[in-house]
């Protein structure tokens, strides 16, 4: 399941040293900690990791959807080469939100305003972002989108409470597509649905990918379902990106010890090996360890793990682990280079 | 938009119910309205009948009136020299005959249960009869006139004050939800216990301060004496007299309303669809209007309706404090004078006003919230 290899020079999405910390009563939570990441045009990346590892916060940092209790929000986010962190809120709202980046939220159940008709909600972004679109044209486009994602047109004039969970999720996808954005971020789009509906939605997503060539960032902890959609895989652990690779080689052989153990915990259709689990707990993001954050749970731990590893480039793959220092062709990103202190 | 309803049978995964197309907004509203009307009418009937039973002390008032009649007639005959010359049996017979006539005239010869239903019928059709002691401002003893002449004053005062209160409280609540945790926010939260006292309580203090001490505003009443000639001056004069009562009513309910509604806004603004609207790039003002205010409005209207009903209940004392020539004061007087027809009549009107309030708010509720489908019966 590989997409067209990217030919363009610049990636659709690129983050440099992205940081998002939250202030809580217990202290500062380092939800997204110096993440360097890139996604090429027309590809779909699956961001996986345990609950609470910062996947959703990463998406929010990219979308600038910040809660009240932000402590630190720094770094660079490039969209088609444009530094969108430099934009002020109004420009960001007018030119980035939904115009270039849209979101399919975690719980589509609650993502629709209960007192507005779904057609109006789906058409709304067009009216905001495309100045010369009339209301009728916008509703017509909404109708097309409904057809495209497989929602009957008679549902256009309904209210969200009259739709089933799967239908609402489709409506949310239609809403994300209507402005033909460059990048769609899907935050666990299927996690609240039953297996059949999940399969339905995944098929819709695949169809969109083939027909529109939009780039995806799919956040999930459901490795099995998402693997069929993925071109790239990004693994997050304790607020950091620990591995970023193309899907084919990642699913064949993950590099980072955490990614290996994560994949060993995924049930497979054939093969009778026992499922493994990862002992221990992820570290608290309130006061994470200074070295490698996975070190305490890692079976390959050695002396160097007390220091924070950089992202090593290994055959075009990026992995944040000292084990690959020798094989590495270089170091990726803006990680503090002090770590190589030997 | 409603023409979309009942299109081709949708495929796959939709719910079984409602698949034939949701009822259109107008049909839904109509059905809802009729259901509410019937329910409210039954409520009014029960309320009025209970009032009749209570005001007549379950029929015991009839006994009191019978002995009153007998006494009046006996006294009347006693003062008649020709009557005093008659033998005692003859005297008794004459008195009994006179009492029977009088009782028949007042309908006291029929059992109370029958008459209570007659009262009910008369009350509901606003055939409120004649008062016993009170007269209307224009000198009539028709209970209907006594009440109807006072009704506009009450409606003007309470209607204005509730609209003012709703607008101000809504605006402040929205503002505070935007500035959650600010000193103004904490100020309103801290003062919310003030709303445990009724409006007339604040009225007394406001009269003391603004009328007795500062002499800026009148003590009470609705217009100056003599009333101004020109209609414009008259309206301004009424508005001038309404400042203190409206202040009192506002003071007694604004803090709790603002506190409650601001909390509703805060709860609703943490909904996922608000964040979605932000992600969609909807203008912050539009988010506030379409994604926070609209979904919260049904909840706020419910809370407002409860408040309005509470204010109606305080009207008799409130109007008496401010010497406001309204329905509440009629009721207050009637209770003092034990004028049963007026008490019952006022209660009937209050019951109707209450039902009307609830009805209007219900309709608004159904308009702002599409999920309300009473009598639809097809929700699973």
Describe the protein's architecture and organization:
The complex is a heterodimer of chains A (342) and B (380). In chain A, 27% of the residues lie in helices and 23% in strands. The radius of gyration of chain A is 21 Å and the shape is globular. The longest helix of chain A is centred in the middle third of the chain and has 18 residues, at 195-212. In chain A, strands 6-7-8-3-9-10-12-11-13 form a nine-stranded mixed β-sheet, with helices on both faces. Chain A is α/β, with parallel strands linked by helices and 342 residues long. Chain A has helices at residues 55-63, 89-96, 118-129, 135-149, 165-177, 195-212, 223-226, 247-252, 257-264; strands spanning 13-24, 27-39, 44-48, 70-79, 82-83, 101-104, 183-187, 215-219, 232-237, 240-246, 311-314, 317-319, 330-332. Chain B has 380 residues and is mostly helical. Chain B has two domains: 23-51 and 126-368, Orthogonal Bundle (MetI-like fold), CATH 1.10.3720.10; 56-122, no CATH class. Helices cover 72% and strands 0% of the residues of chain B. Mean pLDDT of chain B is 83; it is low at 1-22 and 374-380. The interface between A and B is large, with 44 and 36 residues.
Key attributes of the depicted protein:
heterodimer; A: 342 residues; alpha/beta; nine-stranded mixed beta sheet; four-stranded antiparallel beta sheet; 9 helices; 13 strands; globular; disordered N terminus; disordered C terminus; B: 380 residues; mainly alpha; MetI-like fold; 72% helix; elongated
